[in-house]
Specification:
There is one protein chain. The protein has 193 residues and is of the alpha+beta class. It is built from 10 helices and 6 strands. α2 packs across α3 and α8 crosses α9.
Length: 193
Amino acid sequence: MPIEPLLLAPEETTVMVVPWHDPVVDAVGHDVRSHYVELFWLNVLGPTATWTLRRLVTGFDRYPLGYELDLGQTASMLGLAYSAGTSNSFARALHRCTLFGVAQPLPGGLAVRRRVPPVAARHLSRMPPQLQAMHEQWKVREFSISDLERGIALADVMMAAGDDPEVVERQLLAVGVSPAAAVEAIATSLARS
């Protein structure tokens, strides 16, 4: 089934943005603001669409059920041009989000994934070899118990201090916790709180 583009009527200045609930992707996917998205989805979506997606999802922090997005104001806040129609950088970014399945058009709006699936093999095959190697390492689900215990201890402290899960993930990776252990540690810490 072909992907329908987000069609913005010339008179539209706002669209409704709602969360796209997908139990399968939500269970195995990665937070839009995660290190995984910056490393691997950025190569697929491009920087403008990645930042646009992050901005759309950030709106759910305040309005979890959805919100009305002012197209011109949002484009301006991202440093993008916006005019009625589809021949502007912001509309193209929204189109790329729908084209690559991280958002889908709805009547009068857009459903947006909070978590994105692992990057598809067809996209990985087009990435530079060093990025492909990093993805292979990321997929390794094995980790030592001490790595996981260390990750959980750090995640618990950071979450108790009020840090967001994406900040915790970034810090765990920065101090050498393996990607698999970091994901598990955050999930464990979230389940405890």
